[in-house]
Amino acid sequence: MNRHLDPRQLIEAIDGTLAPAEAAHLGGCAACRAEVEALGGVLRAAAADPAPDPSPLFWDHFGARVREATSASRIESGLPWWSGWRRPVMLAAGALAVAALVVLARPGLPEPAPGGTVANGATGPAAAFDEEAWGLVVSFADGLTWEEVQRAATPRMGVADAMIDELSAEERAALVTLLKQEMGVLE
Amino acid sequence: MRVEADSAVVGGWRRTPAWDVQVMRPDGQAETREAADLSSADDRTLVAAFQAGRREAFDVIVTRHQRQVYQLCFRFVHSHEDAADLTQDVFVRAFKGLQKFKGESSLATWLYRVGVNACLNRRAVRQPPTESIDAAPRADARGVDPLTEIVRGERSAAVRAAIARLPPKQRATLVLRVYQELSHEEIARVLGGTVGASKANLFHALGNLKRILESS
Q1: Lowest mean pLDDT segment, chosen from A9-13, A177-181, B164-168
Q2: Is the pLDDT at B123 greater than 80, yes or no?
Q3: Residue of B111, B148, B203, B209 to mutate, interface with A, max A Cβ within 10 Å
Q4: For residue B161, what is the enclosing H or E element?
């Protein structure tokens, strides 16, 4: 090898990781040896600068400083957004929505109570459906206190699973059909 | 004793079930052994614990890596106060970014990367440091000739001033190789380059340092 060492090889010579062929060149080339010695001298001069080492007391305070600086930051959990406490709440809310759909779509709804009125001004089949649905709500709500309504509307853990368990096979099939219709995936 | 072995994969890593070990005390209270377990856990375990929401894992990470991060920062700012502030800044950044850490490199390498970025960004907006006697770290000078100590101190100050004048990448390479004793492979991972580029940067850093020291 007649070429002088390139920058990468000069660093490898300082590190002591030079390949045998290049090491042989270095042994016979005064210019490359001088370059390696000069660069190595600079490196040793830099390395001679002592490492700073603060007192142990500083490190005791430092941990507290970092804790204080990060205390306002919340750790974002790596778990999916729908996991944890949100899951039962979402399930309960979903179950309530599904139950409302099942009840409203059930055939043979009872007639609204005499004197019951519909507040909106819809007409035709939609208005008839609204009247029936509203009548059903009125008949269910008759005799209930506000606290009872509130308690019934507040989702509780496991309520969705319990409600679905109570459905018959036909009701579950109807539920699936309704969900598909709502999501627009029905053929 | 109740053991919940949750093997959920968090942040690309499988969670170690050890964190979920709970001991049922006679009074029925669950006693979590997480603190004792985390202090001896390896970095991967600590990161996964943090990503699972266990804040105390970060305290262990700080304790384990604070000295290296501080020394890295000191090599860029040459002042204890600035290095302490910068080290805190690095760990605050790490706290905010650790959730997205995928474990493709070691935690130490990632912290060095955060540290170098913080140091270079800070250097970009601040004036170069003026070397003061107070800034020089204390070394054990017992049994050393005072004159020799003065000469050594002056030489250290000259080397620091010369390093401060290097271009950022050369400076970072020199600091990581000479003071943090990282391999060129590790430097390449920290700075986002190749092994060849790391060696070339070190070559140019040493050459420039030699010229600056000779001219001063």
Answers
A1: A177-181
A2: no
A3: B203
A4: helix B146-164
- Under 8 Å CB pairs connecting chains A and B tally to 108
Report the Cα–Cα distance between both ends of chain A, in Å, rounded: 77
Q: Is the pLDDT of residue B192 over 80?
A: yes
DSSP string, A4-68: PPPHHHHHHHHHT---HHHHHHHHH-HHHHHHHHHHHHHHHHHHTSPPP---HHHHHHHHHHHHH
Task: Please report where in the chains the tokens 């269910």 appear, as a residue.
Answer: A140
pLDDT tens digit sequence for A25-43: 999 999 999 999 999 999 9
- Contacts with B174 from chain A: Cβ below 8 Å: 46
CA distance B183 to B178: 10
Distance, in Å, from the CA atom of B162 to the CA atom of B153, rounded to the nearest integer, reads 14
Query: pLDDT value at position B171?
Result: 95
The torsion of the CA quartet B27, B29, B35, B41, rounded to 10 degrees, works out to: 100
Per the rule left: phi > 0, alpha: psi between -120 and 50, beta: everything else, A115 is: left
Q: Where are the domains of chain A?
A: 7-47, 86-183
**CA separation for the pair B110, B49 (Å, rounded):** 17
Could you tell me which residues come within 8 angstroms of residue A19 by beta carbon, excluding any fewer than 6 positions away? A12
Query: How close A142 comes to chain B (CA, Å)?
Result: 46
Model confidence at A85: pLDDT above 60: no
Pairing relation of β-strands B2-3 and B30-32?
unpaired
Residue B1: per-residue pLDDT: 40
pLDDT confidence of residue A107: 60
Contact B61, B83 (CB under 8 A): no
Q: All domains of chain B, ordered by start, with CATH? A: 2-51 (no CATH), 141-216 (1.10.10.10)
Q: Name the residue among B162, B145, B170, B143 with its Cα closest to residue B215.
A: B162
The predicted model scores a pTM of 0.60
Tokens of B71: 């020394």
CA distance B25 to chain A (A): 26
Kindly indicate whether the ipTM for this predicted assembly is greater than 0.85, answering yes or no: no
Among chain B residues, CA nearest to A5? B203
